[in-house]
Amino acid sequence: MSEHREPFLYVVVCAAGIADGVSELISEAHAEGWQVGVIATPNALALMDQDAIEAQTGYPIRSGWRAPGAPKPLPPADAIAVAPATFNTVNKWAAGIADTLALGILCEAYGLGIPMAVQPYVNSALAAHPAYVESLARLRSMGVLISECVPHKPNSIVGRETYKWTDVLALLRPMKQSM
Predict the structure, then answer these.
(1) pLDDT tens digits for 13-53?
(2) Is the predicted pLDDT of residue 7 greater than 60, yes or no?
(3) What residues does each domain of the chain span?
């Protein structure tokens, strides 16, 4: 991280029904001294107020690859928070599948040594799938910090009120202090 700027946090937002609540995480990150840029999975874009989030962060939301030679719209990440993290993203990330910009950034961040924390949002039926359990174990083995998550009932967005948006910041806080 450069000595002359606040640390930069990428917030990766996945297509969960609560994605529109990401502004809570952004506000708290700003209060803790982070600059924030949002990277959204393609399906998450429709679930968020893009104009409001871009106004809140001061940066465009990234979702697609940029053209070769185009300027980078965000500074390099000092840390990455993934919230809400869906079943699909957790499993693809752990398997090394980089078929979206968000997953490409997550897969590459491991090799770059960028600290990462994830706050899942999955239903109980998906959370019971062996691939999900194995994917969480693989991410932990990669050094990804994983916040505790109580799966919600299938076919609902129950848990919206209790989803802990800022737990990922608490996980990253010790690393931020050393930046």
Answers:
(1) 999 989 999 999 999 999 999 999 999 999 999 999 999 99
(2) yes
(3) 8-65+74-177
Nearest-5° Cα angle at 18, 135 to 75:
70
Q: Are strands 35-40 and 8-13 parallel, antiparallel or unpaired?
A: parallel
* Beta-carbon count within 10 A of 179 CB: 15
Q: Does the pLDDT value for residue 150 go beyond 90? A: no
What's the fold here for domain 8-65+74-177? Rossmann fold (3.40.50)
- Nearest 5°: the CA angle 42, 48, 49 is 125
Residue pair 81/168 in contact (Cβ under 8 Å)? The answer is yes
Mean pLDDT value of segment 133-144: 98
pTM to 2 decimal places: 0.94
Which residue's structure tokens are 């490409």? 104
Query: Reduced to 3 states, what is the DSSP secondary structure of residue 173?
Result: helix
Length of the chain counted residue by residue: 179
User: Pick from 64, 14, 60, 53: which is nearest to 30 by CA?
Assistant: 53
**DSSP H helix total and E strand total for the chain:** 7, 5
Query: What's 54's DSSP letter?
Result: H
DSSP conformational letter for 73:
S
Nearest residue to 166 (alpha-carbon basis) of 8, 21, 58: 21
* pLDDT for res 4: 53
